[in-house]
Amino acid sequence: MRFMVDIKQMTPDEITSEIIGMGLPRYRAEQIIRRIYGRGAADFGEISELPKKLRAELEKRFVLTAPILERKLVSELDGTIKFLWRLPDGNAIESVLLRYDYGNSICISTQAGCKMGCAFCASPPNGFSRNLTASEMLDQILFAQRESGEQISRVDLMGIGEPMDNIDEVLRFLELVNNPLFAPGGRAKGSPIGLNIGMRHISISTCGIIEGIDKLASYGLQCNLLISLHAPDDETRSSLMPINRVTGVDKLLEACLRYSKITGRRVSYEYALIKGVNDSDAQAETLAEKIKSVGGHVNIIRLNEAAGQFEPGDAHAFCGKLVAMGVNATVRRTLGADIAAACGQLRLQKKNLTVKFLRYYE
Ligand code: SF4
Questions:
Q1: Helix, strand, coil share of the chain (percent; to 5)
Q2: What is the pLDDT of residues 292-303, one digit of tens each?
Q3: Most buried residue among 6, 49, 153, 177 by CB atoms closer than 10 A?
Q4: pLDDT at 322
């Protein structure tokens, strides 16, 4: 019995080897890669330049993943598009396409659900279903491009799920998304036919799984690392993020320092300001002291919706205190405020659950 292979889990070189192994000429591999990456082909039947017999043969050998678009919300405020995708096994995931002056960016999910149970997150606690494959991460870009008709040049792994809890598939995804996918045979053959998204245009956000941070660092990639910090002291952070009971703030910051030293990249720290929880002067001082000891940048995030037990703090005032203490800090702009652009919100609406919110795509 022959197992079917997910063709989008393979690099172009691997696809080319498979196609040649089928006794086909090299240019057939290029045709397939071009259509998968160029227009997000949903099945081999769409690759009309291939003979019908070959398309049928490919369908027998390979899986070509394709999420079903279940819902699409477009912000009237800033054009942000939120997609709710249904996967073949029934799981729902979200992606958000954000528009900036410098181009389009997409925030993708890395898991269906999440195990981490952060108190402020729209992804429901104990709502973990499974890890996404690299091809399912890739599909969020390919099919957002197909649905919007627009090119995406930046990727944030900040949607539903914890990327470091699925680090092997994330690493495979990075390899695929960063690959220029030049025509089989190399650069000499012409322009890139793949996504070719540079590592410096890819950001990975984590709640702080140290093994994952160290593993990512060991690859020496130039992607951006964002830490969902949200509190400088263990008591507050553990109350917001259960992972902190295992890691602790100081050990997390040590891992970030290692990451910076190995990769040469500055780490960013996300800090969603919650009134009465993490916005005191003492917390600003502790945060400033710790960040200055490891280096890095602090993104103060404004809560874009008052819900659950949390109220927004004064982001600009808190940011001003950090800057006055010599910290590199800014307040981030909120996009997609009218379409529930926080991670997990659409999925929760669909499930008719109460939205607790936080995690913003900015
Ligand atoms: S904030 Fe991130 S890590 Fe925490 S529960 Fe939500 S998706 Fe998971």
A1: 40, 20, 40
A2: 999 999 999 987
A3: 177
A4: 98
Q: Report the atom number in ligand 1 closest to the C-alpha of 165.
A: 3
User: Domain check: are 304 and 344 in the same one?
Assistant: yes
CB of 114 within 6 A of ligand 1: the answer is yes
- Among 207, 229, 230, 244, which residue has the most ligand 1 atoms within 8 Å of its CB, making it the best to mutate? 207
Task: Give domain status of residue 116, yes or no.
Answer: yes
> What's the structural domain count of the chain?
2
Domain endpoint, select from 28, 46, 63? 63
Whichever domain contains 40, its CATH number is 1.10.150.530
Same domain? For 79 and 29 the reply is no
Q: Which atom of ligand 1 is nearest to the CA of 205?
A: 2
Report the SS3 class of residue 234: helix
Assess whether pLDDT exceeds 50 at residue 306: no
Residues 181, 226 contacting (CB under 8 angstroms): no
C-beta 160 within 6 A of ligand 1: yes
Buried b (16+ CB within 10 A) or exposed e, 147-156: bbebebbbbb
Residue at which a domain ends, from 13, 35, 63: 63
pLDDT tens profile 165-174: 999 999 999 9
**Is residue 206 in contact with ligand 1, taking CB distance under 6 Å?**
no
Q: Contact at 8 Å (CB) between 300 and 331?
A: yes
Q: Is 358 helix (H, G, I), strand (E, B) or coil?
A: coil
Which positions are catalytic? Answer: 94, 343
Does ligand 1 lie within 6 Å of residue 161's CB atom? yes
* Owning domain of residue 315: 68-351
Say what the pLDDT of residue 191 is. Answer: 54
CA–centroid distance, 90 to ligand 1, in Å, is 21
Q: Stretch 128-136: mean pLDDT, rounded?
A: 96
Residue nearest to atom 1 of ligand 1 (CA): 121
If asked whether residues 204 and 261 sit together in one domain, one would say yes
pLDDT band at 192 (very low <50, low <70, confident <90, very high): low
Cβ(345) to ligand 1 under 6 A?
no
**Whether the Cβ atoms of residue 239 and residue 233 lie closer than 8 Å to each other:** no
